[in-house]
Amino acid sequence: MILAQVIVGGMGPGSIDFVSTAVHNLVEAYPTYLRTRHHPSAEAFNHLESFDDLYDSSDSITEVYSTIVDRLVSEAIEHGTIAYLVPGSPLVAEHTVELLRRRTEIKLEILPGISFLDLAWDRLNVDPVESRVTIVDGQQFESAIAHLTGPVLVAQCDDQFVLSDIKLSLDADDAPRVTVLQRLGATSEAVFEIDWAELDRGFDPDHLTSLWIPRIPKFRTADAMTELHDLVARLRAECPWDREQTHSSLIPHLIEETTEVVEAIEQMSNSDGPVDALIEELGDLLFQVMIHSAIAEEDGLFDLADVANGIRDKMTRRHPHVFERDPRTPMPNREELIVQWAAIKAAEQNKG
Description:
The protein is an alpha/beta fold.
């Protein structure tokens, strides 16, 4: 029999006017904890304990969320029932709620609340169902929109790195103007349009920043890779030389193309010359990756998606300061990053 309970309420998207009476009653009835005070309406609950100290003392945002949930479960077991307040709505992009759902020691109750999405649709004059809007996380933008063409609301656009990645994902010549939505419902709310070229330098993002993209233009990188993948498959099927190649027979060509990339880089650096030679040599090297992947795909071993997903996952693991960093914590310096990289790599090798 479960005797411990956590009741989760939302502080709304901005102004304390959006905090429901039910949430205020919850705070009066039970011991209550804030996930963070870094939210406009949190000022109404200054007397409550928050978990902000964890953001400064933990190594990753994943560790922060896990520790918060552990503490909440412990407090619920001690007190019987506790309340927990989160920014916005507990049902929208709140990872701690997802972790709480998995805990069998407690009963979880959710008080639905207003999220930033409700205000976004109002500010944009958009019906998300009728317009078939897709909502994506800014840190997964490129992979999330690979096959989309309609309107997209991009949440979690909290720093310049995220905005830069989004900007580079699409063909700038065909990119639309974007609507920036910041701090919806707060007194400092800002909603404005910006050119695609200015996306990562035209304003200062924060943890309450979202983007409205009315249409997704041609996805340049994905289309180019698909066309090259199809070309290599055709060469393997129709060209006698390409068809007879194996992983081993291609080793001299792989070494040659790698050397020529290095030479092109050195030539460009020494003479400050055109980049055409480097583009060509990188293309030759990319072809080597593509044909090795095609051979493996024919043998049923792996394909280009496995290669891409593998390096994506590895780089994500090895860059927690990018993908798991709380924007309020300082970026590690070069020396700290080298030590961090070595430690993560060693941990991966030990697991292997």
